[in-house]
Amino acid sequence: ASSIDLAVIPGDGIGPEVIAEALKVLEKAVAAEGVELKQTHYKLGAEHWLATGETLPDAVLADLRTRDAILFGAVGAAPGDTRIPSGIIEREMLLKLRFSLDHYVNLRPSKLYRTVGSPLANPGAIDFIVVREGTEGPYVGNGGTLRAGTPHEVATEVSLNTAHGVERVVRDAFRRASARERKHLTLVHKHNVLVFAGHLWKRTVEAVATEFPEVTHDYLHVDAATIFMVTDPSRFDVIVTDNLFGDILTDLAAAVTGGIGLAASGNINMDRTAPSMFEPVHGSAPDIAGQGKADPTAAILSAALLLDHLGYAAAARKIEAAVVADVEKRDGGARSTSAVGDAIAARL
Ligand code: NAD
Ligand code: IPM
Ligand code: MN
């Protein structure tokens, strides 16, 4: 197609700040390809909830479904903000989008750029992707509480894992591994304790592996995976894991590869039955919001993932190259959010 019908959800805190820079870069990258970028901006998030009481109205969800892709900033209030119930926006808006639009592949690449400092003394060459399941696991809100507020309260949070859900994300991870140089997949779970879900994941990996004889695979319990993420992160190529383990591992992965300001992600519906959504891994960062301090690189790299998904690989590679060139010039000096966006856009 020669046009992109893009939905933009800037959100809260630093969300609008980093999205402005991602759009600056995206607009320039697609214009160079002769592609028209049509944008529809949606007001959603914690601030919007405070003003209207709305999280994600059905009509807005229906409208979003008609777009080619969604560029998302970040949502959420400051942890201590008592004006808004904790997590309501995260669950009723962000997770509702991921579930309703069937974003079963939560793709989170991690790469250590040559000049970016890692907190690790010996990081090695880090270049892996996490394929995090995006629609199931402990995230589905399958639980409840009995005798709430009493000393006898019982709270449950039951992880949901379906054969269909596990198989489709595992197959996607094998496909991605097969397309990479090292062709190696690591399943991360905890089947020594979480026996039912753990064994479903383990059996599924073993079954799907027979379709991909060129891909080697191994297994780590999630606790051990955090050790290796710090002591030997270059061992990883493709990690496939459950929704919650993937959430935790990808913040750690971002930290060891130079910070959350660089970590991009895609919430992808590989069957293309609904638009996919691309967003930085980070949140609304209330501690630095409004100060022009946020690093927009994660949002800019998320826009590159968006272009890849829509089939504009050449434009995506150009954005990545511009980011790498910018990152290689960084000397630790402070630059404003818009200065980083301008510099990356200028390199396109
Ligand atoms: P956070 O990711 O917002 O911030 C964690 C730390 O990283 C903060 O010190 C912040 O200043 C820093 N940071 C984050 N992004 C940065 C950037 N681009 N440049 C420089 N520094 C950056 O996590 P949190 O504080 O746990 O969450 C804040 C709010 O965001 C909460 O309401 C949470 O639920 C929400 N949240 C939303 C998303 C999302 O929208 N996808 C993701 C994570 C958290
Ligand atoms: C992320 C965030 C979300 C998640 C929250 C805000 C629901 O932490 O995108 O990593 O847990 O998936
Ligand atoms: Mn997270």
UniProtKB/TrEMBL annotation:
<keyword id="KW-0100">Branched-chain amino acid biosynthesis</keyword>
<feature type="binding site">
    <location>
        <position position="223"/>
    </location>
    <ligand>
        <name>substrate</name>
    </ligand>
</feature>
<comment type="pathway">
    <text>Amino-acid biosynthesis; L-leucine biosynthesis; L-leucine from 3-methyl-2-oxobutanoate: step 3/4.</text>
</comment>
<feature type="binding site">
    <location>
        <position position="223"/>
    </location>
    <ligand>
        <name>Mg(2+)</name>
    </ligand>
</feature>
<comment type="subunit">
    <text>Homodimer.</text>
</comment>
<keyword id="KW-0432">Leucine biosynthesis</keyword>
<feature type="domain" description="Isopropylmalate dehydrogenase-like">
    <location>
        <begin position="5"/>
        <end position="344"/>
    </location>
</feature>
<comment type="function">
    <text>Catalyzes the oxidation of 3-carboxy-2-hydroxy-4-methylpentanoate (3-isopropylmalate) to 3-carboxy-4-methyl-2-oxopentanoate. The product decarboxylates to 4-methyl-2 oxopentanoate.</text>
</comment>
<dbReference type="GO" id="GO:0003862">
    <property type="term" value="F:3-isopropylmalate dehydrogenase activity"/>
</dbReference>
<keyword id="KW-0028">Amino-acid biosynthesis</keyword>
<dbReference type="InterPro" id="IPR019818">
    <property type="entry name" value="IsoCit/isopropylmalate_DH_CS"/>
</dbReference>
<dbReference type="InterPro" id="IPR050501">
    <property type="entry name" value="ICDH/IPMDH"/>
</dbReference>
<dbReference type="Pfam" id="PF00180">
    <property type="entry name" value="Iso_dh"/>
</dbReference>
<dbReference type="InterPro" id="IPR023698">
    <property type="entry name" value="LeuB_actb"/>
</dbReference>
<keyword id="KW-0520">NAD</keyword>
<comment type="similarity">
    <text>Belongs to the isocitrate and isopropylmalate dehydrogenases family. LeuB type 2 subfamily.</text>
</comment>
<feature type="binding site">
    <location>
        <position position="251"/>
    </location>
    <ligand>
        <name>Mg(2+)</name>
    </ligand>
</feature>
<keyword id="KW-0963">Cytoplasm</keyword>
<feature type="binding site">
    <location>
        <position position="98"/>
    </location>
    <ligand>
        <name>substrate</name>
    </ligand>
</feature>
<dbReference type="InterPro" id="IPR024084">
    <property type="entry name" value="IsoPropMal-DH-like_dom"/>
</dbReference>
<keyword id="KW-0460">Magnesium</keyword>
<feature type="site" description="Important for catalysis">
    <location>
        <position position="139"/>
    </location>
</feature>
<feature type="binding site">
    <location>
        <begin position="283"/>
        <end position="295"/>
    </location>
    <ligand>
        <name>NAD(+)</name>
    </ligand>
</feature>
<feature type="site" description="Important for catalysis">
    <location>
        <position position="190"/>
    </location>
</feature>
<feature type="binding site">
    <location>
        <position position="247"/>
    </location>
    <ligand>
        <name>Mg(2+)</name>
    </ligand>
</feature>
<keyword id="KW-0479">Metal-binding</keyword>
<keyword id="KW-0560">Oxidoreductase</keyword>
<feature type="binding site">
    <location>
        <position position="108"/>
    </location>
    <ligand>
        <name>substrate</name>
    </ligand>
</feature>
<feature type="binding site">
    <location>
        <position position="132"/>
    </location>
    <ligand>
        <name>substrate</name>
    </ligand>
</feature>
<keyword id="KW-0464">Manganese</keyword>
<protein>
    <recommendedName>
        <fullName>3-isopropylmalate dehydrogenase</fullName>
        <ecNumber>1.1.1.85</ecNumber>
    </recommendedName>
</protein>
